[in-house]
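Batch job 17 of 40 flagged for manual review because the log was empty.
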Amino acid sequence: MQQTDNTDQDLENLGRLMTIFKEFPGQDEVNLKVINGTTITSLKLPAIFVNYGPAFHTRVTEIVGDKGLSVEPAPA
C-alpha cells in the first residue's frame, strides 16, 4: 500500500482492505507493506487469514492496483 499525502484517503483505503480481509476468511497469511517514499514498513497481520482467489484479488487490486498486490508461496 502506497502512503500518500492524503491521510484521510489512506486511512479509508486501509479500512476498505481490512473489510475485504474479513469478507474472505481462509488460511492464507496476510502481510501488509506500507511504502512511504523510500521506506517500506512491513506489518504482519497475525490474526488475519484470507482465502486468496480471483474475487479477493480483484477487490484488493481495486484499492492498491495490480502492482500493489503480490502473492508468495507458503514456506515449505
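Reviewer: the log was empty due to a logging misconfiguration, but the result itself is present. The mean pLDDT is 92. Unflagging and moving on to job 18.
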